[in-house]
Structures are given as C-alpha cells and as structure tokens.
Amino acid sequence: MLDIRQVYKAYATPQGPLRVLAGVDLRLAAGESLALMGESGSGKSTLLHLAAGLDLPDHGEVRLDGRAISSLSEPRRARLRRERLGLVFQQFHLVPSLDVLDNLRLQARLAGRESPDWTARLVARLGLAGRERHYPEQLSGGQQQRLAIGRALAPRPALLLADEPTGNLDETTAGEVLRLLLELVREAGSALLMVTHSPVVAAPLDRRLRLSHGRLGEAPP
Amino acid sequence: MSPLGVALATLLSHYRRHPGQLALLLLGLWVAGALWSGVQAINASARDSYARAEALFDADLDRLTPADSRPLDHEDFVTLRRAGLPVSPIVEGEVTAAGGERLTVIGIDPLTLPGDSALASPGAESGLEAFLTPPWRTRLAPETLAALGLSRQAAGGATPRLAGGRRLPPLAPSAALPPATLVMDIAVATQLLGRGDGLSRLVVPAGALAAAPPGYDLERAEQRLAPGELTASFHLSLTAMALLALIVGLFIVQAALGLALEQRLSLLRTLRALGVPGRTLIGLLALELALLGLVGALAGIASGVGLARALLPDVAATLSSLYGAEVGRTLQLPWHYWLGGLGVTLGGLFLAGSGVLWRAARLPVLGLGQAQAWRAGYQRQLGRQALAGAASALLALGLWAWLATRPPGEGLVAAFGLVAALLLAGALWLPPLLAAGLAGLGRWMHRRPLVQWALADLQLQLPRLALAMMALLIALSANLGVGSMVGGFRLTFLDWLDQRLVADLYLRPTPARFDEIDAWLAGRPEVAERLATASGETTLLAIGDAETPRQPVALFGITPGDTLKPGWPLKATLAGREAAWRALTGGAAFVNEQLAIARGIVPGDRLTLAAPDGGERLRVVAIYPDYGNPQGEVLLATPQLRHRFQAASGSLGIVLADGEAARPLASALRTRFDLDTTALRDQRQVKRVATDIFERTFAITRALNALTLAVAALALLASLLALARERRRQLAPLWALGVPRGRLVAVQLAQLGMAALATGLLALPLGLAVSACLVGSINVAAFGWRLPLHVFPGGMLLTLATALGAALLAGGLPSLALWRTPPRALLAEEAP
Amino acid sequence: MRGWRLLVVGLLLAGCERDPTEPRAGFAGLGADAEGFPPLASEAALAFPEDHGPHPGTRLEWWYLTANLRGPDGAPLGIQWTLFRRALRPPTAPTSGAWAADQLWMAHVAVSRGATHRVAERFARGKVGEATLERHQAGVTAAPFRAWLDDWHLESRVAEGTGDALDRLEVSAEAGRGEAAFGYRLALDAQGPLVRHGKPAFGEGSAEAAGPIYLSQPFYRVTGTVTLEGERLAVSGRAWLDREWGNRLMAPRHRGWDWFSLHLASGHKLMVYHLRGETASDTTLFGTWIAADGETRTLDAEALSLMPLTTRRVAGRELPTRWRLTLPDRGLDLTVAARHPNRWMATSVPYWEGAVTVRDHEGGLPRGEGYLEMTGY
C-alpha cells in the first residue's frame, strides 16, 4: 500500500546542500507494521513527511495505494492525508481550543467518516472516559499522547504514520502508550509506519529498518 | 457537519478559549464603524436637508430684485406679469414656535410658481383649493413637527399656536420639504409675517429673461451658492475626523487579528497536516473575517446612528450659526447610507486583515515547532517603515510647499492631505524610533541587568505594541492639534468679543422710535457716549473697475468714537489705524476678513455697491476680523450708511460715564419707553449668548476628538490585555531567578510608561504641526478667517498625561493580575 | 409642477373632492352640485355692459374665442383664446390683503396650422368685485370691457356709449420662447348682433338645475397678425366668441360634450351642443340656427341628428374627428371633419379643440367652416 522507490531529498543550508535521503526504497503492505530507526538527524522524519505528502522528494516516487503522491496537487494530497492517513507527532499538536472529545474526532469529521461506536470505544480504550470535556492543557503528557493517537485512528486510516510517539513520555507511560497504540492499530486494521530511535519501542513491530547515511538497511531485531 | 464546517468550527473555537481577543476585534470594528457611520449619518442627513432646500426653488430659479433698495410689493408683481414677464412672488420670514424654535415661513403663489418644485407635490389633503383659501394649509417636513410640539400622528390638520399667540393654518406634512420651513399660500404668509402686500423677492424660471427689466436687478440661479457648497468644508472636516477614528479602530482590529493568527499558527499547521488544504484554510480565515466583520460593522452602524442622533442637534446648531444653513435635527438616512457604512467597515477590515491572510497563506506546512519565525524579519520591517515614513514626510513637505504658493482659502483637500501625511509619517517613524532608542538605552544600561533585561524585553514586545502605540500617537497628535486650534480660536474669539462689545448696555429700539430714544439718551448726564449701529443688505457689483459676480453682502454701521476705536481689532490698514478711523468717519469702508479673502480685496481697493441712487463707490481702508459670521460684510460709519444706503437703524450701544451703574438707566429706559426684556440687554448678557453659540459650535469637534482619543487608549489597553497571559509566562523565569514580584510589576509599568512617554513626546511636535495646518490653511478655506497660532503648554502636558495614563491604566490591570497570581502558578504557566 | 397643474384644473373646473389626476373627472365634475351658490333664474334678463363682466355669484364662467383664419398663402390657421373663471368659494365678505383669493383664473391660448398645434396655459388668483380690480394679475371689467390674464388680453375697441362693447375687440397673446414662440394680435369686428342660446335645463324641475346662461357673438370678421414657427403672418377670417356662466355646465348624467360652432357659406351660423351620457336617453342634443341678421331658432333633438363617422387615436384616446350632422327641416346633410386630428389641448384638464370643414355629406361640396370642441373623452 505504501511504495517508496529510489527517493532522494536534500535541503539547502548556508553551508551548501545537505543530502538527507539518497535512494531510499521502502514497501509496506496493508496491516503491516514497520519501525523506522536511525540516529537523530538521519532523515527518519523527512521520510515520514514524504510518506505523508507533507513534503515532496527531489527524485524518486512515493506511491500510496498505487498513486504517485508527487504528481498530485496540494489539495489532492491534503485529501489523501485526510482520508487515508493518520498522523501522530512527538509534540502531540492537539488543538488547545477544542476539548478532548472534539480533538479525538477532529480528523474523522474532517474526513467525513465519524463513527460514534468506534469513537466511544477509543475514548474507553485510551482511558479518557470522564475527561471528554476537558481541554488538552488539563491532561497529563501521557493522556495527551493517547489523545493524539486516538485522533489519528478515529477515521480508521489505512496507514498510521507516527513520529516518535513516545519520545516525550517517561518510560512506564511510554510502554503503556505503545502497547495501546499497537492494539488499536490492529483493531483499526491500519498499517503502521513508526519513526523511533529506541530499539525497545521498535521491538514489537513486524519489521524494523535503519536509516543511515541516507540509505535504508535492515535493523537487528 | 461537513468537513469545511468542522474546520471552520475548529478555527473559531480559538475565540471560545480567548474571548478577550474576540471582544478586542469586535470592539475595534465596532468603534471604527460607529464613529465613521455616525459622522456619515450626520453628513447624509445634512445633505438631504440641503437637497430639499435646493429643490424648494432656489437652485433653478432666477431672482428679480429692485435695483434700488425699495421694498417689493404686490404691484411690482402685477406690473411685471402684465408686461408678460413670468415672475412669481415669494415672501419669506421667520416665526417663533411656542417652544422658542425659529422657523422659516415661505409664502408662495402656486399658480405662478415655475418649475418642478418640491412645493408642487400635493400633500395628502392639501389640495389646491384648501391651500389657497381660508383656513389655508401649512406644508412642512415631518421632522419640523417636533419644533411645534406635535407628534406625527397628531399632526395632520392641527393648528399649533406660535409664540405670539397666532395659530398656523392646518398642517399638512410633506417629506419633500426642508426642515424648519413652513410653506403656505402667500396670502396667509403675508398676514402671519405682518408684511401687508410686501414681498421678499420675485422669481422667474432660469434663463427666461434675457435681461432685467428697467428698475430691477436679475440674479441668475447659477450665481448663488447653494448651502451644500458653503458647508462642504465643514462636512469635509467631519469626514476627516471620522476617517481618523476609522483608522484608529482598524489599528485595533489589525492588532487583534495579528494576535489571533499568531496564536493559531500551530493550529493552522496541525489542520494542514490533518489534511485541510492550504487554500481552504485561507478561504476559511477570510470567511471568519467576513463573519466577524459583519457582526462588528452592523453593531457599529447601529451605534453610529445612535451617535449621530445624539450629535445632530449640535451639528445643526453649528451649521446654522456658522453658515446659516438649516439642517433637520432628526436623521434622514438614504438606503445607500447603510450599504456604504457596511462597505467601508468591511473594506477597512479586509485591508487590515489582508496582511494576516497573506502571512497565513505563506505559512510553510512543515514549520511545525518553529512558530513565530516571521518575527525574525521585524528588523527589516522597521527599516521599510522608516523609509515609508520618510516618503510620507516628503509628501507632506511637497503639499506644504504647494499650498504656500496658493492664494489663501484654497486647497482644502490638499490641506487635509498635508495633515494626513504628517500624521502618517509620525506613526510610521514611531516604531523605528522606539526600537533605536531602546537599543541605544540598552547599551548604555548594560551594567544594570534588570534594566537591560527590561529594555531588551520591551524591544521584543515592540512588534505587538507598535500598532497600538501608532494609533495612540495619531490620536494624541490629532487631539493636540484640534485642541490647540479650538482653544486658540476660543481665546481669539473672546478677545475679539471684548474689543467689539465696549458699551455697557445694548438697546434695540424699533426704527420708528430710534431717534426719539437717541435724543432722550443724549440728554442724560450718566451717558458718556452713544454707539448707534445700522445694518442693511446690498450687492457687491465691482472691485476697482472689474465687475465681479454679484454677491450679496451685509452692510454694518458703527460709531467710531473714543470708546470703540482703541480696542476694535484691525488686520490690515492702508495707512495705519489712526488714518483708517479718520477715513471711516469720512466715508471710507472697512471689509471683513471673509469678504477680503473670498474676493481678494486689499486696503486701497475701491468697491462698487448697489445703493438706492445707483452704485456707491467706496474705498477700502482696513480689513477687520469677523469671527462666526457666515457672510461678507462691509463696515461704514453709521451716519454714512444711513445716508447713502438708506439703511435701517440697528442697535444703540450706551457707554456710561465713569462710576455710573447700568441698572438705574436700564430701568429708567424701560419705564420711559415701555421696552420689553429683549429690547435692552447688558453687555454681560450679550457676551454670554455669543460665548454659548461658540461653545455649541465646537461641541461636535470636541466630542469627536475625545472619542477618538478614547478609542486609541482603548486600543492600547486591549492590546496589552491580550498579551497579559503571555507576559506572565515571560516574567515567571525572572521571578524564579529571584526578582520579587513587586519589582516585576514596577518594571512592567516602567516599560510601558517609557514607551508611552516617548509616544507622547513625539506627539507634541506632530500635534503642533497639525495645529499649524488647521489654523493656517484649513480654517481659512473652511471658514474664511485666519487665526493666530496659539501654543497651550497645559494642553501639551495633558497630552503627555493622557499617553502615560492610558499606558499605565493599560499596564496596570495585567500588573494587578500578576501581583495577585500565586508565584507557583507563574511557573506552572510556563509549561506549554 | 405637474402635480399642482393637474390639481389646479381639477379644482378650477371640477369639485374639490375629485381626484385631480384623473382628467376626465374634470369634465364629469361640471355636472356636480354647486352647494352654496345662489341658483340662476332660468329666464334671467340680461343687462349690458354689466353682463359682459364677471358674475362672481356663479361658480363657473368663460370668455371663449375661436377663429378660422387664412394666411397670405391661403392656408387655413386656427386660433383660440379662452379665459376661465372659477369661484373658489361662494361669495362672502371679501378677505383683506392683496393676495387673498376667492377666484381662480385660467387662460388657454392656441395657434394651429397643419400638423402644428401650439398651446399655452396660465393661471392667476383673483378677487372679483373690488375697486382696484384693474390692478390684478387677471380679471374682467365690463366698462370698458377688458378680459386679461398677465399680458394676454381681449379688450373692447368701442368708445364708451357708441355701441355694444363686444362689437369691436382686440385680442392679443404671446407665449413660448425662441423657436417655439407663438402668438397673435387680432382686430375683431362684429357684422351682426349678440345672440342668446336657449340652453335647456339639465335637471328635473329644481331651481338649482337651471342651465347656464349662454351667449355668442358669432359674426366677427378678423384681421391681424399671427406669429408661428418664426414667421409673422398677416391673417384674416372669421371668429366666434362664446360667453357662458352658471353653476353647472351639464347634468350629473353627462360624461362630456361635443360642441360645434359653424360659419356656413350661406351666411348662417350654426351652434350644436351634444352632451353625452352613458346611454342614448342620457344624452342631450340641442343647437341654435342663427340667421345673418341674428335671428335665432332653437333646435332640439327632433330638428337635429348627429353621428360620429370616423374615430382617430389622439393622445391615447379614441376621438371622433368626422361627424355627420343633419338638419332635415333645412334640408342639410353635412359632414363636419377636423382639418387635422392633432388638436389635443394637453392642458391641466385636457380636451380637443380645433378647426373643422363643413361639406355636403353627399357630393362633398364645401358648405363652410368652424370649430369643434370635444371634452370628456
């Protein structure tokens, strides 16, 4: 479902162009989960952004469901994101002016696919029951990240892209959140592409790849 | 809900969490809309009155007046009609309503009145027969009913009583008529006015006569100034003030929008990451702007109408005392007024919001986490602003140079442009000046860490405060400028009153008894001098040998004796004051400044005026100031005026001998000649009436001025309140580092106070420059007189105090909140 | 001004309760009651010169002159000069002041030739029966006879005491400006006496229903000048002066009238009045046969018949511009036809007034000329 072929990406910096990706190939089947590992600055987030259509490659192709993202217009890419993808950020990026419930179903509503049963189930499973009318700032860090995961999964996306989803959490909370994330991804039937630097976090996923010097390689389990 | 609706609701949810910003936005729109549309409502209402006055007959009819100044009567009319001339009679005069309001009575002959006159439209039951025969009909505008103490429902057919006890013919309201005007058949009008067969004038269709018949003068319709033209300058001034208010209001809007956007930058990025296209977001932001604009503008227009309703009586008084133009005291709003108000407010909103939308449109979707990057460009922006300010200052200089080459009294629009360019230059320069000042101070204060921090912090806040400060600067300068102008005018006017009102008592005898009373006073030992006046109307025919467009001028006679001469102000003389006074006694003339400026008359010119014996040629030996007079006036010695123009006697000023009291003579006069209270006034009374008129005249200016200043202070307050929460977060680390809360509050107040003081100091020279423009150019063009430039140190102090007060008040409330916040909460707030 | 003008006439000719914007009401109103005005005696004796002057005790009155003229080239010209008086209220004690009004005066002036038809209208307020009458904008004095509004006038050229004041008249009027200016100055010399018509009463017996008093001087020979379309023309021809006063000019059942004043080639004059009602029974037809010496014979509906032949659309109305007029007793069967249909008087109360030709109905031999007035269409 996600097919990345020979992707190159470089950024202009005052010190000259900085090559981040140099011929990356990556395939992800439906329902599969994959951990993308690598050093800080190795280009993991860039690859994730390319997969989300938030950015475009200099060369190569990113295909989602067989369609080349780079050939789509911005509104079509946005639509693809809205309807097929879920995104979880390290910084959560919740909407401070919306309450928990509205944050949770924001993307589902934007995609026009809100399912009350699934939403209710997510609230219960994420341990946010009773806090539906609270605002993000009133939640703990773990709760906020769980909410961000719920927001991404509420429309049952075909592919969930997660960027260090537990990076801002303490170890215990991180474990809990990760377990929940994987369970829910399975329940939603989504594929998962997760960027992480932690082998512990990567361990439970189906596959693990490591990005270094702009190329992908198998990572030890 | 549709995805679009969800996205819009998400954007708008920001205001639910930050109602202060919403309030600020709406407040800005509301005040901008209210002041602008209020003034436009006044202007629209006045224009409606002028249009109706012009439609009455004056615009399109020529007038016939006797070549000598004998009165017209029925016989003139019949003689001319029977000679085949299509003349129609008009009698015009004033009556006083029971409530004291003065109303113009116009008597017409509908059978001969030419043209498509507004009088022609028949009222509901005012058929011609009813109009022409007893008990006749009084046709009047519905808004005139209030002056007669009647409601619209009770009006039809009512016969209200006038002050003298007489009754008006049954009323027939007609919306097409101008306010404060009663139109009726000439038969009953002459009775009501006690005119006998006398006429005010004869009118003929425009162009019907190739030349005046022998013994008459023909005044062409196009030679007359319509009231709309005379008062245009006044309305332009009002509009300028309203524009100022609009701009200040839009400054608030821009500040609020900027804040609301900045705080939603990460939200915008999140939404784009969640799949809302960028263009959709811009569209939604524009929609948000439109929704807010609609609410704010409608509220503004509604309040504007209320404001106009409150101010209109003062405006009407001003127009009537400055220009003699009658304006209705109730609002008459055409449909396009509403659309126009909405259009201007919304247009201004989009102008203010366009920068915000542009910034949002250029927002990189991947900038997640690096919010407020655009602030880095602020330094560059300051540079551009300084350049724009310089351009604006150059424009002002150019306009000033151009105006200096024009004859006085011209270029009203350019003069307003000059003021606008000055204000704009000042406003644009303010942030760069503040930034430079702060940077300099910071270097100088590097040994005092807290001060240095405060300066650096203020520099950081500058982008957000700049707009509010600019608004404050504009309002302060305009306030100081207008305040100095009005204050200077007031001083000059009071001086001038003192110089002109030299007698102790003023007596207004009927012409028939004038000589009798004068003779009696001549024999009284306590009377030191009698100052007889006379007045009349004539037409200016020529200046030198050049014929001028015929212009009606007033004639006024004074008694140039020992009491009057020393104080009477003169602006220019031919050969010194003494010589001028001698020449006046000998038959020469003075002209007032208005006439001199309008016609370019200088001492030494010879004027030809229409007189009973043909044209009287008079030499002008001096020009005198004549504040508050809408008309050109020629001054002569009373005996000369009465002899050469057969003018009616006017008032009689009585100067008492030293040590004599006015009261005994006044009561002696009252008993001896059976005078009523209005015929005899003492000097204090006259001065009080004149001063009252003056104060009312400028009440509207003062009110608008104060409102604008209040709006600017509000803008500053609102901007600071909006920033307050964020400020507390920035202060928390300092507190954590060991700075006591008291110091923090003090530092914050000091920061704001300094910025405001700097703004106020810049406003002083700017205000003076504005005042100089008002006094030197705009006044001359608008009113026809030039005033000396007065500087009021008190006013300047007040300006500084206002700036400081507004800033401290604005800073005080957040500081109070800071003071009350438990220290721990400060740090808790620091977390995201 | 339109509003007033319509109003003026609505009121001048009609009762004041009528809607003045409905022109027909103006003529229909001439049949309305005239409350407060003393009734006219049906067989009132007349006294001259007093009866040449105004009768302020009556509601309505007119001095109505029409002339069939020819210019130097023989082309026919028509002129009209009319002064109407209407009392604003029944006679009471006069109100003081020069402007006080109890009478409304209205004057119509028209000159027509071919397709050209020039019309002017003026109004004035008046007070009748005052010593200073001649110092008013409009009025009529009996001795010396003079009727005027502004500079438009009709006045006697007869020295006092040497004959009837109407025997020799001068009429003069100027109107319009520039290219549209028109007017005339004519001398009128009567070749026969003043005649009185037997206008029937309209009502059924009541004194107030008495018809108006109706006189004519149909015998004028005319010479003078006419100004039209920038030309000054020497003209000559015949004229007919009508005098009528009363409180009502027709009965309530009447809708309007057709009036014929004909100069027959035989030297006879013929006046025909056709007061139209809704139905034939509501219609009144009468006339006067006037011999060259002034002897009159009143014609009633038996002695006359009148039938419209052709109608033309004029000013949005259907107007009969050709008529068949028969006087069986005199063996006359005539066609009376307008010289031109465009003689519409677009005055405050509009009506049709224009010159006509008279021919034999069979054969079309010319038998005379005259004027036709049609109101209430």
From TrEMBL, chain A:
The keyword NAD does not apply. Keywords: ATP-binding, Nucleotide-binding, Transport. Residues 2-219 form the ABC transporter domain. GO terms for cellular component: plasma membrane. Pfam families: ABC_tran. SMART domains: AAA. GO terms for molecular function: ATP binding; ATP hydrolysis activity; transmembrane transporter activity. InterPro entries: AAA+_ATPase (IPR003593), ABC_transporter-like_ATP-bd (IPR003439), ABC_transporter-like_CS (IPR017871), ABC_transpr_LolD-like (IPR015854), MacB-like_ATP-bd (IPR017911), P-loop_NTPase (IPR027417). The keyword Transport applies. Transmembrane segments: none annotated. It comes from the Bacteria. This is ABC transporter ATP-binding protein. It comes from Halomonas nitroreducens.
TrEMBL record, chain B:
It is a multi-pass membrane protein. Keywords: Cell membrane, Membrane, Transmembrane, Transmembrane helix. Residues 241-352, 705-823 form the ABC3 transporter permease C-terminal domain. Signal peptide: none annotated. Its main location: membrane. Coiled coil: none annotated. The chain crosses the membrane at residues 234-261, 281-302, 337-361, 382-403, 415-441, 462-482, 703-723, 768-785, 797-819. One of its GO terms (cellular component) is plasma membrane. The keyword Transmembrane applies. The keyword GTP-binding does not apply. It holds the Pfam family MacB_PCD. Residues 466-670 form the MacB-like periplasmic core domain. It is found in: Cell membrane. PANTHER family: BLL1001 PROTEIN, MEMBRANE COMPONENT OF PREDICTED ABC SUPERFAMILY METABOLITE UPTAKE TRANSPORTER. This is FtsX-like permease family protein. It comes from Halomonas nitroreducens.
Automatic annotation (TrEMBL), chain C:
This is Iron ABC transporter permease. The lineage of its organism: Bacteria, Pseudomonadati, Pseudomonadota, Gammaproteobacteria, Oceanospirillales. PANTHER family: BLL1000 PROTEIN, HYDROLASE. Residues 61-247 form the AttH domain. It comes from the Bacteria. It holds the Pfam family CrtC.
